[in-house]
Amino acid sequence: MAYETLIADAEDGVALITLNRPDALNAFNNQLMDELTAALDRFEADESVGCIVITGSKKAFAAGADIKEMRELSYMDAYYTDFITRNWERASRTRKPLIAAVSGYALGGGCELAMMCDFILAADNAKFGQPEITIGVSPGAGGTQRLTRFVGKSKAMEMCLTGRMMDAEEAERCGLVSRIVPVDELVDEAKSVAKKIAALPRATAMMTKEMVNVAYETPLSHGIMFERRLFHSLFATEDQKEGMEAFVEKRTPHFNNR
Ligand code: CAA
Fold this sequence. Notes:
alpha/beta, about 45% helix, globular, binds acetoacetyl-coenzyme A
């Protein structure tokens, strides 16, 4: 499929999706979200891909929902077209590991998309924020919920109520991002981490991601039971036998994702 608002390529087990609407700082219009959904569908189905990276430009990961497209929406338009739910949520349902490599602005929906990913690698120039209140709306793609879980009530409230942006250092300090990378190295570093993940047993990575995600949704005892059941099931995989045998035989394992 030919995309107009993003660039999508796969190499060495890693898919790289680069948001590409430079004139609008990668603001999310319907076309971009449809294309992102299509690209994620394609890479989930592609057996050669083990990990997916979403990135933007140096100036902007994404400046949020496209305000110019959104401003004429009525309540009935938003409700009947299922705005956001219809084509934004795909990232949060991705089964393969998904990394956000964020440089520059990640605002509104941009911050929300990054938080739908499994973890965020931030460039040293990254800025995160939920400025929706300054244009008369609230976050609408999970910002009030996910940001609060990442950074706690006080910071989430302040950011959502004032629109204040957080820089990369503050974001790392409060656990929003996994770590900070110099801006010129961000994409290479994200690809290298993704390559490492893609080379590990696929089912184990996908199940581990499910386990961590369940920690947000369930009481501790249920989460631990869920982890235990999936952990037990991994003993049915060929990769478990290979990984453990290779360790004992002091050799490099050869995983076949089975
Ligand atoms: N929607 C549409 N166009 C946008 C945009 C957006 N969210 N953000 C930036 N643009 C456009 C600008 O209109 C401008 O276009 P023109 O050249 O045609 O005027 C171009 O991108 C460059 O932007 P600026 O000139 O504003 O660049 P800047 O460097 O001066 O400022 C910025 C950068 C601080 C990110 C500023 O662009 C900005 O504040 N953008 C809006 C951020 C925002 O409010 N995001 C939340 C959107 S609502 C949302 O996301 C809802 C939700 O939760 C789902």
